[in-house]
Structure formats: C-alpha cells, structure tokens
Amino acid sequence: MNNLEKYRSLLTDGVDGLLLTSRYSRHYAAQFDIAEGIAIVTKAGGYYFTDSRYIESAQNNIQGFKVVETNRANPYSKLLNDAIAEFGVECLGYEEEYLTVAEFAGMEKDLKAKLVPMGKQIDKFRAVKQEWELDRMRKAQEITDQAFEEVLGRIQPGMTEKQLQAELIYCLYKNGGDGLSFDPIVVSGPNTSLPHGVAGDRVICKGDFITMDFGALYQGYCADMTRTVAVGYATEEMEKVYNTVLQAQLAGIAVTKAGVTGAQVDGAARKVITDAGYGAYFGHGYGHSIGMQVHEAPNCNPSGDTPMEVNMVCSAEPGIYLPGKFGVRIEDLVVFKEDGCENLTRSPKNLIIV
Ligand SMILES: [Mn+2]
Q1: Model confidence at 1, in pLDDT bands (50, 70, 90)?
Q2: How far is the CA of 181 from the centre of ligand 1 (A)?
C-alpha cells in the first residue's frame, strides 16, 4: 500500500475527502516536502495546491497528485471548491491539530463541504517507518553523532553556554544537517538539573556537567540525542548518578522489541533509577516517538499501553535531575524490531571528561 492509499483507507461512510494541511501529512502523502500548500485526497483522485514559490519543485517531485498553482485569481478556497465539486465531496476530513482557529473559521465559511475532524487517524500512519524513512533517520543521526564528536573538541572552560550552543549548531550544519530538529539544549553546572533548560550566559567551568540535547534535520526527518559530559573532572556523586542513568537506559534498551508496551520499556528503566534511590528525580517519560516531527506518538512512558510495532522509532532518554546540584540525561534513538532493536545512535556512552 503506498502512502496515498493509506490515506484513502480513511475514506469510509462518514468521510469522502481528506484535507491535508500539515507539512508532515503532505510530505508523507506526496513523498516530497513542500513548505506550504494544501492537498485534497478522494477515492477518485487528488490535488496538491501550492504557490509560485514552490510550484516548479512540486511539479517535478510530487507523486500521486495533480499539482495546481494557487494565486490571487485562484485562491485555495476556489481551488478546493472546484475539487469538491469535481469529486462530489460532501464530508471533508481535516487535521484539527494543525489548523489555527482563524484558518478553520475561514474554511468553514468558504468550503462547500461539511468539515469532519479526523483526530489522530491521519498522524497514526507515520508511526511505523518505511525503509526510505529509516534511511533518512539513520543519516540524520549519523550527522548528529559526527557533530557531537566535533563539538567535544570545542568545549573550553571559560566559554558560555550560548557560545557552546553556537558551536554545536555550526557542527550540525557543517556535518550535513539541513536544519535543526529543535533548538539545541545546552546547559552546564547547576543548570543541568533543568531537563529542558535554555542556554544562557553562564560561564562553563571545571567540575561542571554539561548536558547537550540536539539533533540534525535531514530530508525532513529528525535526529535527537543527548549526552552529558564532565569538564575537567567528575565527583564520586556525579559518577554515581551518571552510571545510574546509563544502567537505566541500558535496561530500557534491553527490553525494547516489538510487542512490548511503552510502559514496560519505561518501567524497566525507571526501576533502576528508583532502586538507586533517585525515583523522585526522574519526572519525565523514558521516550517519545520521532520522525518528521521531533515528538510523535506513541510514547514510552508510564501510560504507554499499546504494544509497540516493528519499525516504530523511539527515544531512550532517562534522566536524573537533582535541583540546585546537577542533572544527567543520556539519549539514543532506537528502532523497534522483531527480536530487539536497532540503535541509531553511535556516540559513546561512557562518562566523557573533556
Ligand atoms: Mn528526545
């Protein structure tokens, strides 16, 4: 079943057309990424509308749709109504998670079809990755691993978190990233107890932990990794917490395979942290799915109750955060397989002291 057929499978009694407005769904359905546009899918055919900035690229690369240019004379509403009339669409499913209230109000006013919210049904197709998607994610992660190796040589006591963040971003692009999966997190010293702290003007010094959480975007797909490194030296307590997080991550990875639930994976890792006495300091979930978006469903957290499937990709990122002291997080990306998992992240996980 090609991707367009997957979307067509949603066209049943209540819905006879689908409006794809999110960049992710348009990319997945047409197997090509265009920053702006709207696509409509019906049993009989589909149109992909975009403007003059993207039309040539769309015409050359979009698969499965008729590509038509929108412009002042042919606004999206007119083109969509033409398609609605041509295909006799009465009920048009839409992605309510990716429309602003204003955009929805405009469509409700202009379009000559009843709008039906599709909930999570449209996104769910992207949970299990195809080989071409995994190849892009492997490449995204390879770039990210290379950036990590390179940035390690650039860490110097005396530089600020923001300066290190800038070096990290440079390394992600230099090694082949098309962009960033998200603004990298770079925190140091006591700031490492903030799981999603923001890089600031704090000066990095000896005895600090530095946590870097970052990923390259490659052909529309995200990488995501975290490493915590020590500057100059690490105290016994820092080593103990680091090793506890590492053992927790390895325990999660050890049970990662198709058929287990996200809660089981989370539980295996959480047990290590709880048994070591740090249970209260691991507040977030063990992992999230990832693909075109850095955070996708399903999650590997205590409420993840659906069995994971072959070729779902999830992060493995336990952490311990001691307020006022320091924190540690270690994150890899793993692909669920029949008998285990493929770890996309190659960077070492022993405690690195720079
Ligand atoms: Mn992550």
Answers
A1: low
A2: 10
